[in-house]
Specification:
By secondary structure, this protein is α/β, with parallel strands linked by helices. It is built from six helices and five strands.
Length: about 150
């Protein structure tokens, strides 16, 4: 997945990226964007320590140190946005919407803008039967006029 995300970022000539920083594809994409010097803005639904506990280190893998480094860098560069202090699915849905809003804002503010809006969706290819927040992000991005690129996890 790392190589596919790297190739997509490079191949699409991405100049800025707005993302959450959950374990897995979020952190991988942020690291790849960092490596090729793409501007990165991180949007979290609530405080970093709470997000780290619920969406980073609670899963298999050693994502904690990468999260800490990426969030510290975003904070230092004034590129860290904390949406609020709500919990659960509403907090994540609000964060998804803020990611879309921030991408639209950056698209207009970058020199030569507005630039093309691209949403990268990393998932299994089909929504889960319950409240699938990845699918919510995908459909919201489409409604907002984003082109969607899918990276399959399978």
């Amino acid at each position: 997945m790392r190589e596919r995300l790297h190739d997509l970022l490079r191949g699409e000539n991405v100049i800025a990226m707005v993302s959450s920083a959950a374990c897995g594809s979020d952190i991988i994409a942020l690291e790849e964007a960092e490596q090729i010097q793409i501007r990165r803005r991180i949007v979290l639904p609530f405080a970093p320590d709470k997000f780290r506990a619920s969406s980073v280190v609670d899963r298999p893998g050693s994502w904690g140190s990468a999260f800490d480094r990426l969030v510290a860098s975003a904070e230092r560069d004034d590129e860290l946005i904390i949406v609020g202090d709500a919990d659960g699915d509403p907090a994540y849905a609000a964060s998804n919407q803020r990611i879309i809003d921030e991408a639209q804002l950056l698209s207009r503010r970058f020199p030569g803008g507005p630039h093309r809006l691209l949403a990268v969706v990393v998932w299994e290819g089909q929504p889960r039967p319950d409240n699938d927040l990845t699918d919510h992000f995908r459909t919201s991005a489409i409604k907002a006029g984003f082109e969607v690129k899918v990276v399959l996890t399978t």
